[in-house]
Amino acid sequence: MNTNQPLESLKTSGAVFFIFGATGDLARRKLFPAIYSLYREGKLAQDFAVVGLARRPRTRDEFRLDVHTSIQEFCRYSCDSIESEEWTTFAEHFEYQSLDINNVDGFRELSVLTEELETKFDIPGNRMFYLALAPELFGSVSYNLKEGGLLESAGWHRLVIEKPFGYDLASAEKLNEQIREVFREEEIYRIDHYLGKEMVQNIEVIRFGNAFFEPLWNNKHIANIQITLGETVGVEERGGYYDSAGALRDMGQNHMLQMLTMIAMEPPSRLLPEDIRDEKVKVLRSLRPFATSDDVKNNVVRGQYTAGEVRGTELPGYRQEEKVDPNSNTETYFAARVFVDNFRWAGVPFYIRTGKRLPVKTTEIVVEFKSMPNNVYLGQKHKLEPNLLVIRVNPMEGIYIKINAKKPGTDSQIEPLAMDFCQSCMIGINSPEAYERLIHDATKGDSTYFTRWDEVATAWSFVDRIAAAWAENPGDIETYPAGSWGPKATEDLLAKDGYFWWPVNGQDEDNVVWIKNN
User: Where substrate is bound, by residue (predicted)?
Assistant: First the structure.
């Protein structure tokens, strides 16, 4: 790919999509519905094919029925019956092959099938390999793709891999070395699906497309920034995986730090993938490291949910969940106070928190601006609330700005007023899903919203210091009842700086007057 080529000129070209782990939950819930949505919107023409790959025996017709069922259940577009002409035309592009990823002969058979599909659908040799597999299998698959002849076609070859990318920096480096023996860095697309979310991608436009934000986007005008990623669910059927990962590795190393980089990055010199990703890496390198265990203790809260009750429903504690060690010290919650030590952000605390079994499913970024002086003019007689910019990422998408204004009909009473833009209210269910954007971007060769290796490595380096400090005292973990907002120590983390967590997702904002978009 010519990295100097403007993104607008990158058109989607036909390709064969190889879905490794095609019988898994990710393929069923996200990948097949995303491909169908792209097809319905004309972003995939007729020159494509999808090959499902897994160990499980499956006939082609059984696989196509599985795809139809997944689209019916999870896609934002309704799907015709399996007898319809439209569905038949779409389904013809899907094939299935049972594959032992450690058997190179199976890859050679796959190569023969691929050439047949490329001839049938006039596909120019472009091949995308989507590994919805455990990370420890990435290396083996990469080697066998090469040995099996699947990287010998005339078109481009791209490898798409899911998080987690390793367990720590050392394992990530080993994994990267294995993949790089086969694929070049520009051919590797590491997915963090949060980077595909509409409002995360909108952060750049909000910041750099509005003259009244960028001049204020610094430590002279911003008091603190809060990033919340709350989940109401427990570990569900992922207990085995989660007990070896925890909230820090499952959410912190990727989603949380990626959102932080989008908020804190400098304006890129050009709107090209590498320039944008360069600025994100600069933020990660500017994070103040936790040099000692005391630094971690003073700036990071680690928690695990216990039994609780939500709306009359009893919920088990983490240690009572299926496939979880009853003596586990794995964190299901963490919050941290983070500093970006550069000229723009020096002294501004970034508070991040994420956890399971919280009261609300939400992802929000709150930018709190510095308060007006309280000893002059209005501040002498009124308690003025600080201005807020809130970016709502999930489940409702939108932004709102909270300002102070005179209450109508009064002489001088001041109340907070929120100007709200609800994107979900406008677009509703037809808002493109993150995986649609990312698959489409990967097909175009646009790596902007995928993580580069130095991003991954720098994030792991930061997170590993926290994990090492926790390993010194594994039993030193706070608890919180399921359905609460986490351990009390989380509130103290902000209180010692004179701040508090702002309510998320509209909670407890009855005192705010709302001006909503139509």
Answer: 193, 197, 231, 250, 356, 361
